[in-house]
Amino acid sequence: MEKKRGIAGLLIACGIFIASAVVADTAPVKLDVDATDAPRGLLHARLHIPASPGPLTLFYPKWIPGEHMPSGPINNLTGLKMSANGRPLTWRRDADDMFTFHLDVPTDADAVEVSLDFLLSAGGSFSAGGSATARLLDLSWNQMLLYPQTASPLKLSYAATLKLPAGWKFGTALPLGISTRSQPGEVEFSPAPLETLIDSPVIAGQFFRTVELTPGATPPHFLHLAADSAAALELKPDDARAFTHLVQEADALFGAAHYRDYHFLLTLSDHVAHFGLEHHESSDNRVGEDFLTDAEVRTFGAELLPHEMVHSWNGKFRRPAGLATPDYQQPMEDELLWVYEGLTDYLGQVLAARSGLQTNADFRDSFALTAAMLDHRSGREWRSLADTAVSAQLLYDSPGTDVNRRRSVDFYPEGDLIWLEADTVIRRQTHGKKSLDDFCRLFHGGKSGPPQVVPYAYDDVVNGLNSVAPYDWKTFFQKRIYEINPRAPMGGIENSGWRLAYTNEVTPFLKIYEGQRKVTDLSCSLGITVGSEGGIGDVLAGSPADRAGLSANMKLVAVNGRSWSAKILRTAVTTAATNRAPIELLAERDGFYQTCKVDYHGGEKYPVLERDATKPDLLAEILKPLTPAPGTNSPSGK
Prior knowledge:
Elements: H1 7-13, E1 29-34, E2 42-50, E3 54-59, E4 77-84, E5 87-89, E6 92-93, E7 100-105, E8 111-119, E9 136-139, E10 147-148, E11 157-163, E12 169-172, E13 186-188, E14 192-193, H2 194-198, E15 202-205, E16 207-212, E17 221-227, H3 237-254, E18 262-268, E19 275-278, E20 282-287, H4 295-300, H5 304-310, E21 318-320, H6 337-340, H7 342-355, H8 360-375, H9 385-390, H10 392-395, H11 403-406, H12 413-429, H13 436-445, E22 454-456, H14 458-468, H15 473-482, H16 491-495, E23 498-503, H17 508-517, E24 519-522, E25 528-531, E26 536-539, H18 544-547, E27 555-559, E28 562-563, H19 566-579, E29 583-589, E30 592-598, E31 606-611, H20 618-623
Parallel strand pairs: 1-11, 17-18, 18-20, 21-22
Antiparallel strand pairs: 1-2, 2-8, 3-7, 3-10, 4-5, 4-8, 6-7, 9-15, 11-13, 11-14, 12-15, 16-17, 19-20, 23-31, 24-25, 25-26, 27-28, 27-29, 29-30
Helix pairs in contact: 3-7, 5-7, 7-12, 8-12, 13-14
């Protein structure tokens, strides 16, 4: 598919520029970051940018790879000053693109000095949000630098140093320099292209630990842990073996590695934003402090590290052409996120089960929740899944309420259903001789080597699947991705020997889900989810709760005349199945109270996958490990 760019983008891509200062191709940009004030939420940086006299344009990275939106946290940039030969320079922000700065380099200067500070506040993009505590730091280099306008900005060489608080240790995929500088606590890195620098975040902290997951193997793999306490660094032997097994399973799935070494960066804190962000040779994973010490917390987040690692192949090595932009200012086109994120989400869950980070039962219960949630989305009636991908940059920042009517970034969870179905189709078409694993090896594997980007288009995905199992893949995706579908695609579940069903008992995984999300999920019965303080997060359109007048952002106060609690609400749902009386819910919004009579008598309903004995259990085959678990001689699953 032809990708359109603005005039400026075409000029940059072709190496054509308005008269500007020339940036030296040989001398690297020097970047010195002082993180000694990180415990109080402040970073300092100095840049030495070689340049010849004349107009110079500098950019603050705007479109950050993996974030799928113009999320460069420029609002947290402060204290910006520029000089040359010790004399201050006047700079001007571009009136059309506020991430762009213009200045003039004096005739007697061969470089520009830039100093800036960065506020590690909770606002901004997810890589900037909540990035430090008094005991640790998550550093994303794109926060701390400007880069000049050149023909190939991603190839610009940057020589970076990092000064940490006394006693702190660090982990990163960025190669270290041959020598270290004399200043205490300062780390010198080898000069690296801008693309590699920004793709190589750093975690550091007072409480820090590194675990080598594959001793003696090539390439090596490391798990770096930074926490707010020493106790949080405890890694149980079974978990360590599961992380090692994850590496082995990923290698077996893709058949090649496109990194020199791989680093899981795992931040354990209740005071940073919780998310995962992919990089080519590492992944930035931020979870609660008890992730490794609480079995339920670890089970709930089991797919995080597998998901982000899969991105090294699907998203970093193979990348949709619309996301493989020539710099960090060109808008990215998100349409193929159903491959980039949807396939990754599916593979991440599969690898979590194959590696032992999650049981097959937890996989099924999680899948049932996903299927039921998507099948009840009223937003499906007006927008396609493709539209959620195209408008991802809007949906990522959309409110967390009323998701049912709006739809959210559904290309993640619905990708699970679609790619499971694709897997079953391949197995059916080839009579069990091939699977989606073969497509992954063909499309994302190839020959091992250093990081590189190989862009692809929609037709490349279709052709790759056809080379594994001939089928009408264009129609398959057209119907599931690009057309409006009032119901979720259940073909993969049904083809694999299971079906979506409902039970009146909370499943073990749902119990963990509700505990971690701090919600009571009655979306399959009353049609509402309720937060721990009574706030109604969502109301399914057309559900009993919707017909009774309840809405998102109301606060539940009482149930049948009694103060609300999750237990009392669930009891009321059970009782209404036999006494036939409506459930009276007292709700408040904006200081006004309303009694809503919910006419529902179907009892509690929670989604599960139910075995269909008339079909082979393909799901068990899909989740079967490809390699022996560490310390055993044969693959085993649960």
